[in-house]
Specification:
heterodimer; A: about 190 residues; mainly alpha; Rossmann fold; three-stranded parallel beta sheet; 6 helices; B: about 375 residues; alpha+beta; Cytochrome-c3 Hydrogenase, chain B; three-stranded antiparallel beta sheet; 14 helices; about 15% strand; globular
Chain lengths: ~190, ~375
């Protein structure tokens, strides 16, 4: 049963052959281009660019992802006093697939790097990263430690950095407003 | 039936940090839980060895970020014991006031997040955070920091209480007293909460003692052991402190212990503010070269909001030669290997919440 009815060598060049055959068959043909359809798609893109960026910047959904101390301020950000929802930063979601913004709150150990990378890859594009607090920005007080990377920007592309240890929840509000400016130009000033 | 293995964490909304659990299930029943820790390890004990004594309190606060002041005080008390520095009398009262306010804030955060885990009772979460913010505002006024304070100095404090602090605190205490009573009423009249907390994760008295758990987890199992009354420090003896305990040993008992502790702390703060003497409460300013240590080895223990915290320090001139920390969360987390066995998977999270772990405290 282990012996195959064909030898492997027979099929080594099969893929190349198929591709060359397909290329030869297409050689003489002219593909018709629908000029009207092309213009139309450009037009719809241009029209939709405004609403799409407006939608993107006005409903940023952060991920419920707390590493360390700053996660306490992240909870406060979503609770009664600061109330993130009035700025369009809706409920914190548990799954990365429903979120736009990852807020890295806390120090990043070597053991957490693969997990954070994986979470970032699971998020739907376009996705944004905020480095919240000293530890995620530059290592913070742990910069000498043997198990800490000095800043999340060594692993992920960071959009906004927030300084402080820990930054107040209002600072996160400011950072998300900066992110909104970055996504869609200038924003109308929120009345906080 | 075949056993199933599922992975929970390290990033999960209900694990309160980065705890990874590997659960072996028979259908819906938990057969075995294997906690994996170490996602937040950063080597605090090693970093402290390279620093002068009073450079480290800032590190200590980040061990337990829900109750930073308690760890700050524990470390400074260890250094004070090593250097042989007495604490001024007014400073002792102020420390007790701040520690108990910190305990209230910590337990309120626990109440909010735990109840959110149990049945998405999100309004209680909002209320608790609103009240916690009021307590944090008091602490911010007293110390200058919203979350990390670094207020303890050798022999006293960085800054004394502001004039009028007591009056403002009495108002807050009255408000909190009413609020905690309301929470108790609302929560315990909620059938979802009672169904999911009673007779769940039962730990008998013998089990609790054998596993070495401390704090509200131990007191929920009917052991009346609290460092504040068993080995009193500062002015707890003068304040008629009564430790709170329950006998049932289930999740509900642990919840009840914490609620009663909030009430007891509210009473303690009020009493300490009334009895507080006038005088000087300021400690030594931070200098790199301080007094020489008198003791070679010291061990100090304190009742932290999560259990018994202990620090063992070997001194070596102007810096510690070795610092070892007994973190209460670490030992309490070990009970996860036993408590959820035989329960259903959805009951794992109430049990996890009732133990109240802080992962930075576990990994250090």
């Amino acid at each position: 049963m282990d012996e195959k009815p064909y030898s492997e060598e027979q099929f080594v060049h099969a893929k190349q052959e198929m591709e060359s055959l397909a290329a030869a068959s297409l050689k003489g043909r002219k593909l018709p281009v629908n000029a009207v359809f092309g213009k139309l798609s450009e037009l719809t893109k241009a029209i939709a660019a405004g609403p799409i960026t407006w939608g993107r910047k006005s409903s940023l959904w952060p991920m419920q992802f707390g590493l360390a101390c700053c996660a306490m301020e992240l909870l406060d950000f979503g609770s009664a006093r600061v109330d993130a929802e009035r700025g369009g930063y809706l409920l914190f979601r548990g799954t990365p697939r429903q979120t736009d913004v990852m807020i890295v709150a806390g120090w990043v150990t070597k053991a957490m790097i693969p997990e954070i990378k994986r979470l970032y890859e699971q998020m739907a594009e376009p996705r944004y990263v905020i480095a919240y607090g000293e530890c995620a920005t530059c290592g913070g007080p742990w910069w000498e430690s043997y198990n800490i990377i000095t800043g999340i920007d060594q692993v992920l592309p960071v959009d906004v950095y927030v300084a402080g240890c820990p930054p107040r929840p209002e600072n996160l509000f400011g950072a998300l407003m900066k992110l909104q400016e970055k996504i869609g130009g200038k924003i109308v000033e929120n009345k906080i | 039936m075949a056993l199933t293995k599922i992975n929970i964490g390290p990033v999960h909304p209900s694990t309160h940090g980065v705890l990874r659990l590997v659960a072996t299930l028979d259908g819906d029943t938990v057969k075995e839980i294997e906690p994996h820790i170490g996602f937040l390890h950063r080597g605090v004990e090693k970093l402290v060895e390279t620093r002068m004594y009073m450079q480290s309190p800032s590190y200590m606060e980040k061990i337990d970020y829900v109750a930073p002041l308690s760890y700050d005080e524990l470390y400074v008390a260890t250094v004070e014991a090593a250097l042989g520095i007495p604490v001024k009398e007014r400073a002792q009262y102020v420390r007790v006031v701040q520690l108990e306010l910190q305990r209230i804030a910590s337990h309120l955060l626990w109440l909010g997040t735990a109840i959110n885990d149990i049945g998405q009772l999100f309004s209680v979460f909002m209320w608790c955070f609103k009240d916690r913010d009021i307590v944090l505002k008091l602490l911010e006024e007293a110390t200058g920091g919203r979350m990390f304070y670094v207020n303890m100095r050798l022999g006293g404090l960085n800054r004394d209480l502001m004039p009028g602090f007591a009056d403002r605190t009495y108002k807050v205490l009255d408000y909190l007293k009413n609020r905690v009573g309301e929470y108790e009423e609302y929560i315990e009249s909620n059938p979802i909460f009672m169904e999911r907390m009673k007779k769940l994760g039962v730990m008998s008295r013998e089990e609790a003692i054998n596993m070495g758990v401390t704090g509200p987890v131990l007191r929920g199992s009917g052991v009346d052991f609290d460092i504040r009354s068993a080995y009193p420090y500062y002015v707890y003896e003068k304040l008629h402190f009564r430790s709170q305990f329950e006998t049932a040993g289930d999740c509900f008992a642990r919840y009840k212990v914490r609620i009663n502790e909030i009430k007891e702390s509210i009473r303690l703060v009020g009493e300490a503010l009334k009895k507080m003497p006038e005088g000087d409460a300021l400690g030594m300013p931070i200098k790199l070269i301080g007094p020489a240590p008198k003791e070679k080895e010291v061990t100090v223990k304190r009742e932290l909001p999560r259990g018994e915290g202990m620090m063992y320090m070997v001194t070596d001139g102007q810096r510690p030669y070795r610092l070892s920390i007994r973190a209460p969360s670490f030992i309490n987390t070990a009970t996860l290997q036993h408590l959820p066995n035989g329960h259903r998977l959805q009951d794992l999270f109430p049990i996890l919440a009732s133990i109240d772990t802080v992962m930075a405290d576990v990994d250090r």
